[in-house]
Amino acid sequence: MSKRHLTILGATGSIGLSTLDVVRRHPNRFSVYALSAATRVEELAALCREFHPKVAVMADPGAGGALAELLADLPDIRVLSGTEGLCEVASDPEADTVMASIVGAAGLQPTLAAVRAGKRVLLANKEALVMSGQLFMDAVAESGAELLPIDSEHNAMFQCMPADKIRDPEAAGITRILLTASGGPFRNHSAEALRSVSPDEACAHPNWSMGRKISVDSATLMNKGLELIEACWLFNSKPDNIEVHVHPESIIHSMVEYADGSVLAQMGSPDMRTPIANGLAWPERIDAGVPSLDLFTIGQFNFERPDLVRFPCLRLAAEAFEWGGTAPAVLNAANEVAVAAFLDGNLCFTDIPVIIERTLATITVAPADSFETILAKDAEARECAREQIDLLPV
Ligand code: NAD
Ligand code: MG
């Protein structure tokens, strides 16, 4: 076992902190090369004091100076800022492993920098892959980067597949992927009750503790839609071969069915440190700090079909993937704008899919032939989604 040198993009977030919690348990296995945050200067400074990275990056170009001031007594830590700083630490030869845990489209360029530099890339930032699908996977193939899924469902699928055939389901004898979903906090809400849910209610997930954006995505089922697209790219599959199963206990993290009728499931407590530790140490297994699973307390597993009428975001994501080209990037951008508006109290929960659908209907889909095209469509879709929000009656 040689020591791994980590860059953690989005170190102050839910995934970033869980990653550092696993790292803390294994000082002989991991050293931290770089840490990044968007705006939380004090939190990042505190993490730098504990983990002593060689570089610390504030994504906000204006915040680098404030971090440098807080770390003035630690001159060995180089402070960078902006997207260039993020891309630099993601591709630096001193780091061999990059945890891509920035939330949203902001993670695309640094994650891609890590891919192009041929790193072991631990992918939590699903939005980057959803936006750029084929180009992202082509970049992985070209550089020889080792892309390992951290999203709990995809990590579960990965664990249930032969490691050398994850991109060739037919050769592996895989017939179907069963993508599990908790159903979110509003699984049993009526369509009427959904109209008036608050941001805090949406962020109070029954099983998982996560950042606010992904919590809202879980509540609308857009998270499952993004994960459907993510699974298609990671495992070279089609939406027809992936079936969403609402499983409110969140113990089975996903399943893979084989030609002989075998269905393999990966289970565990809903704690992201399990998939994170799996990716960090793969193919070895290490302690993640996760308590042992007690099935006697859980008692039973339930399954139901998702309701696409109350939760249209899952349908919209599947349609955007089938549409292809820049449609998934438009879907993602419109969703980010709508979720931010909902969290700010400027949009009601049930208008999130309305804004996404209108944006998808307005923006012309183009072939996703370059990252520049994708970023341009992302910007166009954001603008359009904001206009659509302004047009709604107050
Ligand atoms: P979070 O909001 O808790 O943390 C996000 C991190 O990204 C923070 O460190 C923040 O400083 C940084 N960040 C935010 N905006 C940025 C910007 N514009 N530029 C650079 N950095 C920025 O989010 P999270 O819940 O940790 O989720 C991170 C990613 O992991 C998301 O893509 C999410 O979908 C995915 N994911 C999260 C979980 C989970 O349990 N939290 C599970 C599966 C997948
Ligand atoms: Mg997930």
Descriptive report:
With 394 residues, the protein is an alpha/beta fold. The chain has 3 domains: 4-150, NAD(P)-binding Rossmann-like Domain (Rossmann fold), CATH 3.40.50.720; 157-267, no CATH class; 324-391, RNA polymerase sigma factor, region 2, helix turn helix motif (Rna Polymerase Sigma Factor, Chain: A). The protein is 46% helix and 15% strand. It contains 18 helices and 11 strands. A 7-stranded parallel sheet has the order 4-3-2-1-5-6-7, with helices on both faces. The chain has a 4-stranded mixed sheet with strand order 9-8-10-11. Helix 11 (212-220) crosses helix 16 (327-343) and helix 15 (313-323) packs antiparallel against helix 16. The radius of gyration is 20 Å and the shape is globular. The protein starts with a strand and ends with a helix. The mean pLDDT is 97. The structure holds nicotinamide-adenine-dinucleotide (NAD) and magnesium ion. The site of magnesium ion (MG) has 4 residues, from helix 7. GO terms for molecular function: 1-deoxy-D-xylulose-5-phosphate reductoisomerase activity; isomerase activity; manganese ion binding; NADPH binding. Its cofactor is Mg(2+); Mn(2+). Residues 267-383 form the DXP reductoisomerase C-terminal domain. This is 1-deoxy-D-xylulose 5-phosphate reductoisomerase.
